Amino acid sequence: MVYGKLAEADLSALQHQAQQQPQRLKFLIEQAAQLPAFPADARVPENEVHGCEAKVWLLSYWQDGRLELQLDSASRVVKGLLALIYQALHHASVDQVANFDLDALLQALGLQDLVSVSRRNGLRAVVAAIKP
C-alpha cells in the first residue's frame, strides 16, 4: 500500500479533515499539534535531515518488525507535513514503509499544490532517511 500503514478508513478521515478546513494550512498546523513531543536533547546535528528548507530532526529504529519513529521541525507547516508521514509510517511494517509514496499521500489529501518543489524534496529526504 502506498499510504504506509494508513487504512482506507484512516485515509478517508484525513481527507475529510483536510477538505473541511477553510484553509489547508490550518489543517497542517492542527496536524503538527498532534505530533508527539520530540526529545529536546535529540535535536543534534546527527539527527538532522539535510535537504529540508526548515530544520527537521528524525529518530527511527525497527522494533519487532515495526518502525519506531519520532519527527520534529522548527516550522509548524513542515511539522504538520511530518505529522502526516508519522501517521502513515509509525509502527508500519518494513513492506509498508518500503512501498510508501509521499506524492500519492499528498495528492490523496489534496495537498500536492500546497507543497512547493523544494519543500517536497525535503520531505522526500525525510522519507528516504526512514526507508529500509
From TrEMBL:
InterPro entries: Fe-S_metab-assoc_dom. It comes from the Bacteria. Coiled coil: none annotated. Residues 17-131 form the Fe-S metabolism associated domain. Gene3D superfamilies: 3.90.1010.10. SUPFAM superfamilies: SufE/NifU. Belongs to the SufE family. This is Fe-S metabolism protein SufE. The lineage of its organism: Bacteria, Pseudomonadati, Pseudomonadota, Gammaproteobacteria, Alteromonadales.
